[in-house]
Amino acid sequence: MAWQASVVASVLLLAPAAALATACPPEALGVARTIEIGTQGGLQVGLKTYPRSLALGDHEIVLTFDDGPSTQTTGKILNALSKECVKAVFFVVGRNAEALPFLVKREVAEGHIVAHHTFSHPAETLRQMSEQAAQEEILKGFDADDKAAYGTASGAPKVPFFRFPGFADTPQLVAWLSARNIAVFGADLWASDWLNMTADTELGLVLARLEREKRGILLLHDTKQQTAAMLPALLRELKQRGYKIVALAPGENPPPTRPAPEGWTSETDRIIAEVFAKERAAKARRSAVEGAPPAPPGSSPGGTAPAQSEPQATPPPDMRK
Ligand SMILES: [Zn+2]
């Protein structure tokens, strides 16, 4: 009968909202504490790129997701986080946010932090763009993200947290962001989920790296199927192994940081140099084949990369390791 069908439909529609509204079950992973991040004068954290990180305790983890939102996977990621009552930081790509504002709004509504990762995630990376084009990419991203998340943008991002695509920063851009009181987040560890692997392989890899480091800002991609597939198991395993999730929030005071161990070097700079060298070599080979003179080493296009029609859901030729 019609009314029965309508009651059933109403119950089905209400069920997810009701489930979200219920208190966290005791077995859920939950958030152990929140670190307030004051960004006055800038801040750069994440040992893969910078010689310091947040002062996380033993077994404390910050969850971060890059490159979204994506219709295929971000909803699944949010469901998994919600089920375990944990909060994450989403470094969203502006044009993806612009295309899928309902997912960005859902991130905000469910208590996550919407942070920034440029407008178009340029494949060449900001390091190979002119400073002005790179700044425009960043500012356009802030605007698109805030409009998607909150309906308005003021010129200064509501959450002053930024991550460079491929971690390809420059001293000039870091100084420019610092002058605008924007914190730059690197990562302490990652899942290498830009590589194709099964969810099980990725889970094993992340857990092994965590067991070695015992703490850190973890980089994942909410655009990756394998990451969405393994996240529920990862969160369960973290709970069982005694890990604690730490949430971040914009705040007034600079957070405590811990310095890198002695002998630290930037892993991302080493990888970026390798990737750029390979790209230059490939370009030179192509030019030689076509009979054109090879581009001089280090040359790069000066302007903004042409906009691609599809939102780019994958990282640039970045961390291949
Ligand atoms: Zn990225």
Verbal overview:
- It is globular and about 65 Å long.
- The chain contains nine helices and twelve strands.
- The longest helix has 24 residues.
- The relative contact order is 0.21.
- It has one domain: Glycoside hydrolase/deacetylase (TIM Barrel).
Task: Give a brief description.
The chain has helices at about 1-20, 75-85, 95-100, 100-110, 130-150, 170-180, 200-215, 225-240, 265-290, and strands at about 30-35, 45, 50-55, 60-65, 90, 115, 160, 185, 190, 215-220, 245-250, 255-260. The protein has about 325 residues and is an alpha/beta fold. The chain has one domain (about 30-290): Alpha-Beta Barrel (TIM Barrel), CATH 3.20.20.
Q: What small molecules are bound in this structure?
A: zinc ion
In quaternary terms, these chains amount to single chain
Number of domains: 1
Strand segment tally: 12
Q: Strand count, sense and closure of the main sheet? A: 7 strands, parallel
* Number of DSSP helical runs: 9
SSE class:
alpha/beta
Helix-residue proportion: 40-55%
Q: Specify the CATH architecture.
A: Alpha-Beta Barrel
Secondary-structure blueprint:
Elements: H1 2-21, E1 31-37, E2 43-45, E3 52-54, E4 60-66, H2 74-83, E5 89-92, H3 94-99, H4 101-109, E6 113-116, H5 131-150, E7 161-162, H6 171-179, E8 183-185, E9 189-190, H7 199-213, E10 216-221, H8 225-240, E11 244-250, E12 257-259, H9 267-290
Parallel strand pairs: 1-11, 2-8, 4-5, 4-10, 4-11, 5-6, 7-8, 9-10
Antiparallel strand pairs: 3-12
Helix pairs in contact: 2-8, 4-5, 7-8
The structure holds zinc ion (ZN).
